[in-house]
Specification:
single chain; alpha+beta; 8 helices
């Protein structure tokens, strides 16, 4: 359970879990004033995937700074796909899997880190994206990594159309197509909203 700083923060989180967009904007500003840029950027996620200043705050391990209990208190969940300290060389492919362990959630964004390579997420090709063993691509072929940060991604991938149940395996297959001879590690996050009712989310934060 997330421990809020005070009753103001606790109240804002409960409103956001209920879908209050004004509270979301106010809380983002409040977090920014308290030096929590990663959490503020997450609350600006719709803008973050389009505008570089916010997107920069989401790179470099931002999910590690958010905290899973904080995400869940807001009604969100995230799966992480990472090779950690292992670099992927040019033209090398890797398959990474993760599983939801908490509650069913509806995927919203696949955010591929732009850190460490000249063209950012465009230096990664996503070869396949599978949920429960089933490909989410409408047709075979690679999808550029940066396309997942654009509205057009819905034309190519169907992952937003279903809930991911606990214990269901989610897998990514990616290839590094960048120019860094030494390669770079891969990091991405599948972020979505918990499928639970807002009433149950209210119990997940303490003032």
């Amino acid at each position: 359970m997330y421990q809020a700083r005070d009753t103001i923060e606790a109240g804002l989180i409960k409103l956001i879990a209920d879908g209050d967009t004004a509270a979301r904007q106010f809380y983002a500003k409040w977090l920014g004033e308290h030096g929590e840029k990663a959490r503020a950027a997450f609350l600006h996620l719709d803008q973050a995937i389009l505008h570089p200043p916010w997107r920069a705050s989401l790179d470099g391990g931002w999910l590690d700074l958010l905290g899973v209990e904080w995400l869940r208190a807001l009604g969100h969940e995230a799966l992480q796909f990472s090779t950690w300290d292992i670099s992927i060389l040019p033209s090398q492919s890797v398959q990474i899997t993760d599983r939801a362990t908490y509650k069913p959630f509806q995927p919203q964004y696949l955010l591929i880190s732009a850190e460490g390579t000249p063209r950012g997420a465009a230096d990664w090709a996503v070869n396949d994206f599978r949920i429960g063993g089933f490909s989410q691509f409408y047709q075979s072929g690679d999808v550029p990594g940066d396309l997942f940060a654009a509205p057009e991604i819905d034309r190519y991938v169907a992952f937003k159309r279903q809930s991911i149940m606990p214990a269901v395996e989610v897998g990514l297959t990616v290839t590094y197509i960048g120019a860094k001879a030494e390669g770079i590690p891969f990091r991405a996050w599948l972020v979505g909203r918990l499928s639970s009712s807002s009433a149950s989310l209210k119990t997940m934060v303490n003032a």
